[in-house]
Write a structure and sequence with these properties.
Blueprint (H helix, E strand, L loop, with lengths): L1 H23 L3 E6 L4 H12 L5 E2 L10 H7 L9 H15 L7 E5 L18 E4 L7 H4 L2 H8 L8 E5 L5 H4 L5 E4 L6 E8 L5 E6 L5 E6 L3 H17 L4 H8 L10 E4 L5 E4 L6 H13 L6 E2 L11 H11 L7 E2 L1
Parallel strand pairs: 1-3, 1-4, 2-3, 4-5, 5-6, 6-7, 12-13
Antiparallel strand pairs: 7-8, 8-9, 10-11
Length: 333
């Protein structure tokens, strides 16, 4: 109870300082949410914007009510009961909130693991909200995909503009909302028209912007999901006024992060794909697709448990089991 109360007080104090920071400065906030891929999408957007703007962001997943404000102030989270550290931190953030902000943009990740949490970020008033997907997540708390959709779409009510991956978000949930779309679909505002895979080195993409202009870029991201991360970054940059030549330059800065489709060298000329950070059916299938398409003599899949899937957990694990193709996998663990 004391911990919960203390956290609430800290959140309110930090949020008031962020409001002051926003009132005293003219900078852009790009917020990223979604069931799958939001950390990678956030980093892709931050690195792409960073080619032409001064951007502040956090490498990890500071994405809850307490940690999101810390990103704007460049602070790390002390232990909740480390009172001297919090007092010192709040003094620093109070000072920063009254000064000129040295950044053009902030890219923030908005996380949720239960209904009603997204509305706590309304004070940020994002200039752009990017939604990476609507898929099963924390189902023991949400209960249904309908509840997940309602939660992940909540920021559309307080963000100025929205950009949504329509490949991985069912159309029924998006009806009635105003947004720009991205994906492989011909109907998407931002779309990938061609891909050339380079095995474990990445791929070459042709991207059509909402303006109709096409750009090409060599990127380190793997597979279809990797391509969509890059597309999200290109679309977000274009939506925020970045010139196509600077978008291309920024896309080349995108690299895989630990635990998320990162390529590692193994023994005896083996290649390891590290996608161990988290798991959901959408993410596991995407990782398996990369493995299936790899031009190698032998493929081995090592799969663990997908946690927090709620009542549908057994069915979702069976679904992944069925997706494991014995004609493409030498071993499954």
């Amino acid at each position: 109870m004391i911990k919960k109360l203390g956290k609430a007080v800290l959140c309110m104090k930090l949020e008031s300082q962020v409001k002051r920071l926003r009132a005293n400065n003219d900078f852009m906030i790009v917020a990223v949410g979604g069931s799958v891929g939001k950390t990678s999408t956030k980093l892709a957007i931050a690195k792409t914007l960073g080619a032409s703007k001064k951007v502040i962001y956090q490498d990890g997943n500071y994405n809850d009510r307490l940690t999101v404000p810390l990103v704007l102030f460049g602070e790390t989270e002390p232990a909740i009961f480390n009172i001297p550290a919090w007092i010192s931190l709040l003094r620093r953030t109070a000072k920063i909130s009254k000064q000129k902000f040295p950044y053009d943009a902030a890219v923030l990740e908005l996380g949720t693991d239960a209904p009603g949490q997204m509305e706590q970020f309304a004070y940020l008033k994002p200039d752009l909200y990017v939604l990476s997907s609507i898929a099963p997540e924390h189902m023991e708390y949400f209960g249904s995909l309908d509840a997940v959709a309602t939660e992940e779409l909540q920021p559309l009510s307080f963000a100025k503009h929205a950009l949504i991956n329509t490949d991985d978000s069912e159309a029924e949930y998006l009806a009635g909302h105003t947004f720009a779309s991205y994906g492989f679909s011909d109907s998407a505002d931002y779309r990938i028209t061609n891909t050339t895979q380079r095995d474990f080195l990445g791929q070459r993409l042709t991207i059509e912007l909402a303006s109709g202009q096409k750009i090409e870029a060599e990127v380190a991201a793997l597979g279809k999901q990797g391509a969509k991360l890059v597309l999200a970054a290109a679309a977000a940059a274009h939506q925020t006024g970045v010139a196509p030549k600077d978008i291309i330059k920024g896309l080349q800065q995108i690299t895989p992060v630990p635990g998320r489709m990162q390529i590692l060298s193994g023994i005896k000329n083996s290649v390891l794909i590290d996608d161990t950070y988290n798991a959901s059916p959408l993410a596991v299938k995407a990782a398996l697709d990369v493995l299936y398409n790899a031009n190698v003599r032998q493929r081995i899949a090592i799969l663990g448990t997908m946690n927090e899937m709620g009542e549908g957990s057994a069915h979702m694990h069976e679904e992944i089991g069925e997706y494991c193709d014995p004609t493409k996998l030498a071993h499954l663990m």
